[in-house]
């Protein structure tokens, strides 16, 4: 045997040995193999690889051409796969089994037996043979539950024709029959190559009657814009979990309605729209005007400045606003031809929708900052904007009438307010420095005031620092403090009996003292003076001495000499008052002086 | 003899002119369209004490010599001195419109505090304070209930005290207001340096809030809420 022959044989054996550990078995079936017309089944292709020495793998199959069968519709767009692994020990040998299932939803359009013939497909470096499999479709019986296509389904209406760049609002609707119950809803998946799709937000709910049945309808509104011409397809699908009704008239010993729920099946369903095809036409290029800025729809144009007069070098804002319905997000700012008289800056754009739910209706404004280079009446650039009307199938050009802006030279006051529009009276003339005002308004405006007797600020010094104000407040404060003191003392006298008595005594003493000092003769003096002395002792000792006799008259706290003098005074007074012969030797003035000194001592 | 009389008349005339009050001289100069001279006379009048009338006349004179920023400052001072004078406010708004500024709007509270000059608010405050003190504390001191006629006085005093205190505080907080007295639009700068980058534009006559001073620059906030630095001489505080 030659060496190369030996090598070849060795490789074949090795490959065989290796492959002997990873045998791939292919099975095909319909699940279920028997359905009623209107129901859906699944075509399941199962690849299983079993290995003894090592784990096998099943490659992902990207291309699978299932032979077409008349009467059967394979939904290849909703193809999915499932993988599994298992290990078993048989007769002491370990076996690893890996399987992959490819599942395609199938519906039938007629009753009968349908067979998918045997076919092959490329797998790794070889081919695999897929056996034939048969599906039986029978007529729908009356007692059968309605097909789930009628219970829960996706529906979407799209226009038949659009232009590239033309935005349109569409609605994806999920219909849920009143007989079904939606338990869960996964995110929407879509295949919208060839379109840009706006954000799909939370659905809106409503109720609708469709084909004689009541449905709960979940609606997702959004906008699509084709970006490629030709026939474009849209496809949406959603995985839902729903509880579907069982067969009708299922009887139980306990009645048909109460236990119906036990016979409802919870299923995970994949809903998808029917293929939605839109013919996308390119925009006509032959008659596209240069001012076309991508706008497709129906628009009106507004052009307006923020002021009609300015000063050389002072900017104005020129706004170009497109209002209507169309693809606002694709509308670019109108280009402005270069102009020597204006320095023009790139605009800022603002889009304002007319309603939150519809982004196709509204207005888009472009604000251009423009600075005049020269004084006078420089020409504003002429603005022309073209849009494509898909209904009229032609371009429409819009232009604004010419706008005149007055540009004053530098060092000149503008003769009109920058924000003045229709509010200014057209009759109001510009105010110019003039010794002879030309209008009544100017005369009023520049009329002097001739009387200088109005409010002044008093040398600018606030009042709080002025002498008279400080003096007035100080005086008020002093008056207040004095008044406070007086009222406080009065209140104390009122509330405290001791204090009240003391005060009364004081008042009485003052009266008596006054009477004694005003006495014109000795008789009256000696009548009043002892009373005053007793009251003085009352005041001093807070004791009532008015009716005390001489032995009781003993004011405390005074020196013996003064006490003796007081006693002598009382004795003199009594002696004079009660003697039958009044002595004329008593000197009134001396008595008063003596009396005063005694009072002072008390 | 005749020449002597003529000399006497001449001298008395000169003396008369010399002794003419600057206010009247200013009016005369204004009517002769000698606005710079009128400004000189009116400003001399200010030495006797600031007056709304003098400020008003100065405003007209400045405007007529094409110094609108200074004119608006003078009129703003006049309106602060005479808040009740609608003529001043009308002319102020007319001048502002000429400069492309919006009408000077006064908030409700500003209208209230400008009803009275600052000194009047001080006097009102002191009166309300003493009467409120008398009503509240004397009642406590005397321990007796006051007559029902005194209650409204107390309430009025309390309201007056609050109002005048708030008005005085607002007056002092508002002293940070100023006016751009430059005759040309000025660039606001990000930094207090003449070569600093521009932060915006300040227009002649525009009201600003003065934030701080630094060397020869002042930081302001314009009506358009732009903040930046300006040369200090371009802005005058009210």
Describe the protein in words:
The complex is a heterodimer of chains A (602) and B (238). The longest helix of chain A is centred in the C-terminal third of the chain and has 29 residues, at 467-495. Chain A is built from eight helices and 29 strands. Chain A has helices spanning 3-20, 148-151, 440-445, 467-495, 497-517, 522-541, 560-578, 588-601; strands at residues 23-31, 34-36, 40-51, 72-90, 93-108, 112-116, 119-123, 126-130, 133-138, 152-157, 161-163, 168-177, 181-185, 189-191, 195-197, 204-210, 213-226, 230-244, 265-272, 276-281, 292-305, 309-311, 316-326, 342-344, 348-355, 358-372, 384-389, 394-399, 406-408. Chain A has 602 residues and is of the alpha+beta class. In chain A, α4 (467-495) crosses α5 (497-517) and α6 (522-541) runs parallel beside α8. With 238 residues, chain B is α+β, with helices and mostly antiparallel strands. Chain B has helices spanning 2-18, 22-31, 35-45, 52-64, 68-81, 86-98, 108-113, 118-142, 150-173, and strands at residues 177-180, 186-189, 198-202, 207-214, 217-221, 227-231, 235-237. In chain B, the strands form two sheets. A five-stranded antiparallel sheet of chain B has the order 6-5-4-1-7. In chain B, strands 2-3 form a two-stranded antiparallel ribbon. In chain B, α2 (22-31) runs antiparallel to α3 (35-45) and α8 runs antiparallel to α9. Chain B is flat, with a radius of gyration of 25 Å. Chain B starts with a helix and ends with a strand. At the A-B interface, α4 of A face α2, α4, α6 and α8 of B.
């Amino acid at each position: 045997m030659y060496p190369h022959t030996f090598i070849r044989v060795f490789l074949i054996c090795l490959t065989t040995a290796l492959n002997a550990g990873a045998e791939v078995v292919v099975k095909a079936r319909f699940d279920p193999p028997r359905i009623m017309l209107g129901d859906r089944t699944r075509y399941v292709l199962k690849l299983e690889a079993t290995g003894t020495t090592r784990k096998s793998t099943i490659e992902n199959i990207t291309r699978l051409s299932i032979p077409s069968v008349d009467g059967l519709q394979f939904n290849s767009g909703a193809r999915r796969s499932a993988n599994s692994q298992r290990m078993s020990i048989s007769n002491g040998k370990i076996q690893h089994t890996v399987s992959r299932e490819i599942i395609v939803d199938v519906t039938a359009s007629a009753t009968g037996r349908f067979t998918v013939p045997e076919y092959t497909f490329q797998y790794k470096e070889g081919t695999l043979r897929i056996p034939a499999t048969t599906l039986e479709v029978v007529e729908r019986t009356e007692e059968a539950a309605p097909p789930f296509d009628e219970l829960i389904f996706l529906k979407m209406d799209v226009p038949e024709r659009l232009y590239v760049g033309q935005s349109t609002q569409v609605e994806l609707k999920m219909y849920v029959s009143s007989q079904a119950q939606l338990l869960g809803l996964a995110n929407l998946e879509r295949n919208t190559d060839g379109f840009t799709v706006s954000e799909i937000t939370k659905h809106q709910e409503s109720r609708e009657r469709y084909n004689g049945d009541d449905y709960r309808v979940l609606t997702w509104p959004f906008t699509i814009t084709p970006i490629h011409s030709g026939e474009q397809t849209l496809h949406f699908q959603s995985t839902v979990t729903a509880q579907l009704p069982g067969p009708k008239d299922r009887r139980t010993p306990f009645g048909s309605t109460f236990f119906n729920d036990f016979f409802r099946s919870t299923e995970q369903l994949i809903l998808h729209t029917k293929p939605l095809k839109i013919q996308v036409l390119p925009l006509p290029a032959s008659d596209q005007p240069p001012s076309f800025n991508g706008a497709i729809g129906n628009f009106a144009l507004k052009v307006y400045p923020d002021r009609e007069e300015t000063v050389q070098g002072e900017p104005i804002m020129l706004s170009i606003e497109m209002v209507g319905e169309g693809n606002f997000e694709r509308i670019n700012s109108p280009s402005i031809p270069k102009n020597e008289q204006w320095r023009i800056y790139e605009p800022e754009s603002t889009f304002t929708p007319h309603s939150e739910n519809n982004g196709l209706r509204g207005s888009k404004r472009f604000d251009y900052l423009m600075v005049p280079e020269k004084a006078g009446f420089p020409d504003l650039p002429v603005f022309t904007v073209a849009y494509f009307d898909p209904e009229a199938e032609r371009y429409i050009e819009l232009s604004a009438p010419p706008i005149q802006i007055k540009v004053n030279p530098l060092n000149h006051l503008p003769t009109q307010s920058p924000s003045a529009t229709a509010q200014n009276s057209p009759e109001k003339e510009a105010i110019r420095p003039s010794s002879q005002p030309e209008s009544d308004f100017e005369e009023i405006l520049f009329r002097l005031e001739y009387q200088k007797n109005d409010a002044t600020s008093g040398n600018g010094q606030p009042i709080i620092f002025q002498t008279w104000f400080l003096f007035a407040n100080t005086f008020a404060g002093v008056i207040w403090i004095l008044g406070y003191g007086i009222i406080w003392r009065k209140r104390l006298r009122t509330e405290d009996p001791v204090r009240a008595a003391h005060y009364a005594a004081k008042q009485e003493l003052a009266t008596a003292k006054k009477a004694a000092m005003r006495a014109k003769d000795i008789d009256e003096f000696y009548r009043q003076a002892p009373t005053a002395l007793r009251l003085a002792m009352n005041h001093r000792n807070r004791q009532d001495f008015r009716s005390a006799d001489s032995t009781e008259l003993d004011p405390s706290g005074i020196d013996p000499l003064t006490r003796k003098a007081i006693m002598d005074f009382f004795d003199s007074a009594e002696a004079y008052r009660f003697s039958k012969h009044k002595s004329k030797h008593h000197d009134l003035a001396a008595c008063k002086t003596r009396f005063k000194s005694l009072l002072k001592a008390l | 003899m005749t020449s002597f009389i003529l000399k006497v008349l001449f001298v008395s005339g000169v003396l008369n002119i010399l002794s003419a009050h600057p206010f009247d001289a200013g009016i005369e100069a204004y009517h002769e369209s000698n606005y710079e001279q009128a400004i000189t006379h009116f400003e001399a009048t200010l030495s006797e004490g600031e007056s709304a009338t003098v400020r008003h006349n100065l405003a007209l004179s400045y405007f007529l010599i094409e110094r609108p920023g200074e004119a608006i400052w003078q009129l703003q001072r006049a309106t602060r001195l005479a808040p009740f004078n609608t003529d001043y406010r009308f002319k102020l708004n007319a001048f502002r419109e000429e400069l492309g500024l919006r009408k000077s709007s006064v908030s409700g509270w500003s209208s209230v505090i400008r009803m009275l000059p600052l000194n009047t608010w001080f006097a009102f405050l002191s009166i309300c304070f003493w009467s409120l003190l008398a009503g509240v504390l004397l009642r406590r001191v005397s321990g007796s209930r006051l007559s029902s006629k005194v209650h409204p006085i107390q309430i009025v005093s309390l309201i007056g005290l609050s109002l005048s205190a708030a008005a005085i505080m607002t007056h002092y907080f508002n002293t940070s207001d100023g006016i751009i007295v430059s005759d040309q639009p000025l660039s606001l700068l990000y930094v207090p340096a003449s070569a600093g980058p521009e932060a915006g534009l300040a227009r002649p006559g525009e009201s600003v809030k003065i934030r701080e001073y630094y060397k020869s620059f002042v930081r302001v906030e314009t009506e358009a809420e732009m903040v930046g630095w300006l040369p200090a001489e371009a802005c005058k505080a009210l």
